[in-house]
Amino acid sequence: MSSAANRFALLLVTGLAAGCGAPEGVWPGGDVVLVSIDTLRADALSCYGNPRGTSPGLDRLAAGGLRFEHVLSQAPNTATSHATLFTGLEPWTHRVANISSLEHGTPGLHPDFVTLAEHFADAGYHTAALTDGGPLGASWDLLQGFQTVHAQFEDVAERVDEALELLDEDDDRPLFLFVHTYEVHEPYLPPAPYLERFAGDYEGPLLEALDEVRAEQAQAGARPNGRRMLLGRESFTADDVAFLHSLYEAEVAYADAELARLWPALIERDALIAVTSDHGEEFGEHGEFGHKQLHVETLRVPLILRLPGGAEAGRVVTMPISLIDLHPTLLRAAGLEPAKWTGGIDLLALGRGEVDGGRPSFASTNEHIHPSTASVPWQRSLRTSDLTFIESIEDGGTGRHMVTSYEASDVSEQAPIFERELRTTDRVSLRVSGPAQLLGEHFWELEGIRQQILRDGNGVVTLRASDSKTVEELRALGYVER
Ligand SMILES: [Zn+2]
């Protein structure tokens, strides 16, 4: 958009704010702050049922705003999920992959997609991103539209200090601020008081591993390899798993306490605050640790919206929604219009009963897209009000095709009702047998949308080599073992 158009958009926005009367649930020209607590599964927060008092700060924020009880991410990893958060597009539309192609260049976000930051910048906002780097550094092109960028790993306390400084120095323009932290991501290294409170009674072999990781951190002065706690171990006892989970909860409690210093400053500005995560974390529920699979523990995330004026305070929305819905929600709340191809629904309009909820939620990994990783299985999932499907197709989508299905009422996805390899003929029969029909048809339809975007030139995969700094940041997160 030209600068003249920028000014027009700003005038339009301020004109509405000055008394033309904004519609209900629209706050034109107001500050918007999006906080991504990377790797935060919903049930780690006490307002989502965690019994250990992990999140008094976020609980208070939720009590003063809207809390969405059932929120599913569209990808189990950072780059892909944030690309969805920023663009409002499904993973197979924006085609941003996470890290398996690191050594060969990474499919980043194509510049033709319009991000939240670009929408806000075009409307005259100051757009600022304070991130912990990795996929939210330079190499994935995810920070398109941010005028102020600081992408560097920091402790969450430093991240909050930095955000408070930015608020102090801010100019007269409305602000779109993105704050991101890897504090609760591996390696889980909570400060001593939190370690003691949440995990102090464990005496098993992982204590030694924890000491090694801490020593590595002290020696390097930086984040150690995130997977050190897990590497080289054939199996974990129930106590080991409980210890890992407790370390994670301790990190959540620490992050919550530090972020609680930020909320009053944002509420004083009457900002719209959205707090969420890109994906959850698995602790062996389905045999893996970290965030690889498409089960509910890696996809269910929190979403808290603190609205200007404290609107809708204390309301809890139980209708299942998806992270893809946040993009249109934030734009419409600021009086802006998302691009026409954006997916998702306006969650505030959902709350007012103006749009239907209960839509299917999709998730996908995108690692198979890159030519060098074409043999990586393509995993995708679909959740409807009745059923959950999780698929894995070998050889980048062309090989052996495994499907697992659960009743939606099986909330922890422990008792599959269907689990087997499919052949082409099986797919046909699955498609015509009740609710499963949606699986084939909807993916087919999405495939069509993707191909159309490719023809329009919007979906061309951008390849760029990753720099050594990014490789180091990813090693710290545990993604690079060499
Ligand atoms: Zn992440």
TrEMBL record:
<dbReference type="InterPro" id="IPR017850">
    <property type="entry name" value="Alkaline_phosphatase_core_sf"/>
</dbReference>
<comment type="similarity">
    <text>Belongs to the sulfatase family.</text>
</comment>
<feature type="domain" description="Sulfatase N-terminal">
    <location>
        <begin position="31"/>
        <end position="335"/>
    </location>
</feature>
<keyword id="KW-0378">Hydrolase</keyword>
<dbReference type="GO" id="GO:0047753">
    <property type="term" value="F:choline-sulfatase activity"/>
</dbReference>
<dbReference type="GO" id="GO:0004065">
    <property type="term" value="F:arylsulfatase activity"/>
</dbReference>
<dbReference type="InterPro" id="IPR050738">
    <property type="entry name" value="Sulfatase"/>
</dbReference>
<dbReference type="InterPro" id="IPR000917">
    <property type="entry name" value="Sulfatase_N"/>
</dbReference>
<dbReference type="Pfam" id="PF00884">
    <property type="entry name" value="Sulfatase"/>
</dbReference>
<protein>
    <submittedName>
        <fullName>Choline-sulfatase</fullName>
        <ecNumber>3.1.6.6</ecNumber>
    </submittedName>
</protein>
